[in-house]
Amino acid sequence: MRVCPLCTSRHTAFYHQDARRDYRQCLRCDLVFVPPAQRLSREAEKAIYDRHDNTPGDAGYRRFLSRLFDPLHQRLAPGARGLDFGAGPGPTLSVMFEEVGHPMAIYDPFYAPATFALTRRYDFITASEVVEHLFEPGRELERLAGMLHPDGWLALMTKRVTSKDAFARWHYIRDPTHVSFFSEASFVWLAQHLQLSLTLPAADVALLHKSAFRGTQTD
User: Fold this and answer.
1) pLDDT value, residue 11
2) What would the mean pLDDT of 120-140 be, rounded to a whole number?
3) Is the dihedral of CA 65, 67, 70, 72 positive or negative?
4) Do residues 93 and 68 make contact, with C-beta atoms less than 8 angstroms apart?
5) Which of these, 198, 200, 189, 195, lies nearest to 26 by C-alpha position?
6) Residue 123 CA to chain centroid, in angstroms?
7) How do residues 59-106 score in pLDDT, each as one tens digit?
8) Domain map (residue ranges) of the chain
9) HSE on the CB side for 35, CA within 13 Å?
10) Cβ-count burial 120-140 (b if 16+ within 10 Å, e if not)
11) pTM greater than the 0.85 cutoff
């Protein structure tokens, strides 16, 4: 299958090949992606995640997450309620927001799979180092955007594609759980598609804002 998993366009082209996988690029939204047949099984994917040992007590991990935390926190109203989507085996970003007064829910398909967290609406939703793992990023990001209150924020952190030459040398593609690779153009397309405004405060952070004037929603 050569359908783009972000925008569902069938207009995709060869982008890169290494010893393990092929990579195609969407000619509409610019996403680079691994074909479905070359993705890991759910069991193999989880086995890799189980080796992660990030925790709230890890100062280095907190510094890493601060690239998303800092620009988002300064834009939030006091007491804004959030969801950390794809929190992983050692939720930390949610702890950082709770420490500064933001009630948090968490969801992770492997480690916090209770789906009631996905039935509510939030003032902000974070997904740190998540979108590159998504088999269907378009469907998932549409769902998350739909869970935002007006004036809400969808905050994503993922490293971005910059060029073919850099991609061929990129450590990011060596992780077999990474299957969807966004460029700046991909985020521009996504913001337009979701009718959100886009801010790129860092090389690996994208903040998408839902206008407060798009109508009202209730829990």
Assistant:
1) 97
2) 98
3) negative
4) yes
5) 189
6) 17
7) 999 999 999 999 999 999 999 999 999 999 999 999 999 999 999 999
8) 12-209
9) 16
10) ebbbbbbbbbbbbbbeebbeb
11) yes
Look at strands 122-128 and 148-157 and give their pairing.
Answer: parallel
Task: Give Cβ neighbours of residue 66 (< 8 Å, ≥ 6 apart).
Answer: 96
**Residue indicated by tokens 């480690």:** 111
Q: Are 172 and 159 contacting, i.e. CB atoms less than 8 angstroms apart?
A: yes
State the DSSP string of the chain: ----TTT--S-EEEEEE-SS-EEEEETTT--EE--GGGSPPHHHHHHHHTT----TT-HHHHHHHHHHHHHHHTTSPTT--EEEET--SS--HHHHHHHTT--EEEEBTTTB--GGGGGS-EEEEEEET-GGG-SSHHHHHHHHHHTEEEEEEEEEE---B--HHHHHH-GGGGSTT--EE-BHHHHHHHHHHHT-EEEEEETTEEEEE--TTS-----
pLDDT digits (tens, 9 = 90+) for 169-178: 999 999 999 9
Q: Assess contact for 58 and 94: CB atoms under 8 A.
A: no
Instruction: State which amino acid sits at residue 207.
Output: L
Structure tokens at 40: 């890991």
Q: How far apart are alpha carbons 147 and 88 in whole angstroms? A: 20
CATH architecture observed for domain 12-209:
3-Layer(aba) Sandwich (3.40)
Of the candidates 34, 32, 10, 12, the residue with the CA atom closest to the CA atom of residue 22: 34
